[in-house]
Amino acid sequence: MTPFEGYEFSKRHCLDISDFHRADIENLLALGAHYADLDVQKHGPRDVLAGKTLVNLFFENSTRTEKSFELAGRRLGADVISMQIASSSVKKGETLLDTAATLNAMNPDLLVVRHGQSGAPSLLAQKVSCSVINAGDGTHAHPTQALLDALTLRQAFDGDFSGIRIAICGDILHSRVARSNVQLLNMLGAEVRLIGPPTLIPTDADQWGVDVFHDMKDGLAGCDAIMMLRLQLERMSGSFVPSQREYFHFYGLDRSKLAYAKDGAVVLHPGPINRGVEISSGVADDPDISLITQQVAAGVAMRMAILHALAEGIQ
Amino acid sequence: MTPLTLTDIRILDPESGRDETGHIRIEDGRIAALGNVAVRGDVLAGRGLTCAPGLIDARVKAGEPGQENRETLASAARAALAGGVTQIVVQPQTEPIIDDMSLVDFIMRKGESLDIDVHVAGALTKGLDGRTMTEIGLMSEAGAVLFASGPNPVEDAGIMRRLMAYSATFNALISNSPVTPSLSDGSCAHESDVAARLGLPAAPAVSERIMAERDMALAELTGGRLLLDLISSAETADSVRRFKRRDIDVAASVSINHLALNELDIGDYRTFAKLDPPLREERDRQALLRAVEDGTIDIIVSDHDPQSAGRKRLPYAEATPGAVGLELLLPVGLKLAAEEELDLMAFLRAVTVAPADLLGLEGGRLREGAPADLVLFDATEPWVLDSERLLSRSKNTPFDGRRMTGRVRHTFKDGRIVYSAV
């Protein structure tokens, strides 16, 4: 028995949070919570994806997301193959649509795509006959990361997002994680804030239904959860921020800045973390504060839930 | 400290518009009372003299560190006080360039032992490379009051946009040289018939306006605080006026040289009048004077730029631009006022309260409780400038041998007399 009983999940793809209704999300999170039970995850039914083929198609390097999908697929009984596009046919000049035609000929059931260009998974979804899961496209969306973050928060706050104040801090401009999280957390009724230097916050972000802050002290006031983002170090030389030293001084999360948030506030980070740039080790490694490890665990559970839900559609 | 009263003095305060004869009483380094007030303590008879707030010169090249032969902070301070200047902002183009908080700290520490307030303009980009943002936040915390591009503009509009957006977080004022390099590179004069006759490579005034308009548009986009550094043409002044009407946070500076001189002052290749930006036409100079009076141009600076004679006595195109100005900012302003070219109060506003407000500094005004940073001058005294008598280590000035009207008698810093004319 799964929490999906009595609810029909009818979506074919998982491309963007806005593809889903709140009921879809609630059910996905409930199913994620079901798979978060390690006993269910490891010893549960292996036939959910029996006979199905899952293809991991990563145009950008990623270890944790790719392995997380691989593990999720295998635990549900799928045949999983990974295609390392970064080092293969694209280098030889193959276009995205050529790749789609190749894939169609292989007849996979589920396609997990990460691509450096916003909208690439969506384009693929129009050209392939299987379900497509966006594992991160450009600076657009990373819906499964947002869902696993929500699952982590759901576990931390007993399933209730209403009235929870969450700050997303750092390089919002280049972050697909932030964009998906803003949509999802807003949908779930949380109060979302964005904090970062103006150079790393998109123009008009205040129209996303969030409050924007450029000062950690003001932005973190009364926050229940703080989601730190990775500062891409290559941004330092692009004149987005002057230096790691200055960035950490004003926007890095350490205990003194954490003190501006609510007592008992928790900290998330999609990883990999830059210690001493966006977060101090003292915060990142404190099990009473940091949910970073739980996020990784939730990743496998949530991806099992997504694969499961899409498989229902396939059937 | 014994109180000191300056008696029967013309009091000119650009903040309040006060212009009256009365006394000023100084106690504990501050202005205790002014106007029709009781005489107390020591007395300095001021009949015939005018008192204004000590001047704030927002654009000074100091030479220290790295080029102490041109000027040190100490020699700059002596020159400043002789010119009634009690606060200076040193520019970042030293050796090394002031692009780090430790260098900001170094200059400020050096300044602490001097009789003037030394403020620092940090570099806007690392090594003034025009590309890599400096630690604007940390340097602001260390005390930098302005972030400047140096002689070359930030050419890349995308980078300028980020610099302005980032600096807005710290409410930091940033300045950029309004020059379009693709129009101005390789030139050394204002493009006109004068430059054509002299055969000098020249750039059009529109080079300045294009970059100024770009930066003002970026200020509008980002909400950053912009100082257009040294505008020199009538058209740029018009642009600034237009943007200011739309409540965009933009300020402009002009050098005293460009208010007093025009392109004819370079005569037949007189390199001591070679300046950056180049001296322009008389119509530009007139437009700049009007722009100071109507507040379009916020501040007047000396653009003090000490250069050795060796770097000046060269063929025109090869000579280094720049002139010393700390001792001449007030006298040249007084000369313009005496010749009724510029309203005296408007001039004083642009060298006292306006830079104080723009840079967030105390001083620059005559009111109870303000620091007693004052200059006493004789507004009508005639004299002839002999550049050899300047206190600056470098003597490069286009005003050498000129007849001047108006001279500094005493300068006060924190209630103490720190300069008196011999």
From TrEMBL, chain B:
<feature type="domain" description="Dihydroorotase catalytic">
    <location>
        <begin position="52"/>
        <end position="235"/>
    </location>
</feature>
<dbReference type="InterPro" id="IPR004722">
    <property type="entry name" value="DHOase"/>
</dbReference>
<dbReference type="InterPro" id="IPR050138">
    <property type="entry name" value="DHOase/Allantoinase_Hydrolase"/>
</dbReference>
<keyword id="KW-0665">Pyrimidine biosynthesis</keyword>
<dbReference type="InterPro" id="IPR032466">
    <property type="entry name" value="Metal_Hydrolase"/>
</dbReference>
<dbReference type="Pfam" id="PF12890">
    <property type="entry name" value="DHOase"/>
</dbReference>
<feature type="domain" description="Amidohydrolase-related">
    <location>
        <begin position="280"/>
        <end position="418"/>
    </location>
</feature>
<protein>
    <submittedName>
        <fullName>Dihydroorotase</fullName>
    </submittedName>
</protein>
<dbReference type="Pfam" id="PF01979">
    <property type="entry name" value="Amidohydro_1"/>
</dbReference>
<dbReference type="InterPro" id="IPR011059">
    <property type="entry name" value="Metal-dep_hydrolase_composite"/>
</dbReference>
<dbReference type="InterPro" id="IPR006680">
    <property type="entry name" value="Amidohydro-rel"/>
</dbReference>
<dbReference type="InterPro" id="IPR024403">
    <property type="entry name" value="DHOase_cat"/>
</dbReference>
